[in-house]
Amino acid sequence: MNNAIKAYAKDHGGRVSLLLLLFLLAIYELATSGFSTFAVICISPLLVLFALASFHYRMFVFWALVTINYFISTKNNSLGIPLSLPNEIFEILLIALAIIDVKNTRWERLGNVMLITLIVWCGFIILEVLNDTCDIGIDVGAWYAGARSMAFQLLYAFIVFSIYIDRPKILIKYLYLWGAFALFAVFWVWKQQHLGFTEAENAWIQTRGRATHILQAGTLIRYFSIYSDAASYGIGIAATAVAFIIFGITAKVKKYRYFFLIVGFACAWGMFPSGTRTAIACLIAGFMVYIFLSKSVKIAVPFTILFAFFVFILAFTDIGSGNQQIRRMRSAFDPNDASAKTRDINQEAMKKYMRDAPWGIGIGMGRENVPANNKFAFMSTVPPDSEYVFIWIHTGVIGITLFLICTFFMIAGACWIVFFTLKSPSLRGIGAGFCCAMVAMQLGGYGNGVLTQFPNGLVFYGGLSLVYVLPWIEKEWIEWENNELAKQEEKKRLKLEKKRASRV
Question: Could you give the 3-state DSSP secondary structure of residue 81?
Answer without folding.
Answer: coil
